[in-house]
Write a structure and sequence with these properties.
The protein is built from five helices and seven strands. The chain is an alpha+beta fold. The strands form two sheets. Strands 3-2-5-6-7 form a five-stranded antiparallel β-sheet. Strands 1-4 form a two-stranded antiparallel ribbon. α1 packs across α2.
């Protein structure tokens, strides 16, 4: 695991296992979801030891302090040597609140609700009025 003094940000994000592929990392950078020390960057920007990398993966913004610059992917056990997670606790609270809310904040166009979400919706709306057949209409 040779460490250099600098590494490309897209390669570093991939090597540090923050993104699954380098192309996904590059796309996130191009879309303005990655910042170094609060400044949006390009995929070719070099990252140095000690800099803080912020990655927006809605609804949370993760922050990482660079401890080692690498461009080759490493095993998950070695990640504590590569970066330090400095994400604020309120970001994790936001993630937990989003997980708990579930279908309530459903984005438009995300498809039909799942069976579980549909049942929760029906329970929220109230009793159904499907039993009109039992009603005596002649009274």
């Amino acid at each position: 695991m040779p460490a250099t003094t600098e590494a490309r940000i897209d390669k570093w994000l991939w090597a540090a296992r923050i993104f699954k592929t380098r192309s996904i990392a590059a796309d996130a950078i191009k879309n303005g979801r990655v910042a170094i020390n609060g400044v949006n960057v390009k995929p070719s920007r070099m990252v140095k030891v000690g800099e803080t990398v912020s990655v927006r993966k809605p609804p949370v913004t993760y922050s990482f302090k660079v401890l080692k610059t690498i461009e080759q992917r490493v095993g998950a056990k070695l990640l504590p040597e590569i970066y330090e997670n400095v994400t604020t606790p309120d970001q994790y609270e936001l993630l937990e609140m989003n997980r708990i809310s579930g279908f309530v904040n459903r984005a438009r166009g995300t498809g039909r609700p799942t069976k579980k979400e549909r049942r929760a919706l029906d329970e929220f709306i109230g009793p159904s009025f499907d039993d009109f057949d039992d009603f005596d209409w002649e009274d």
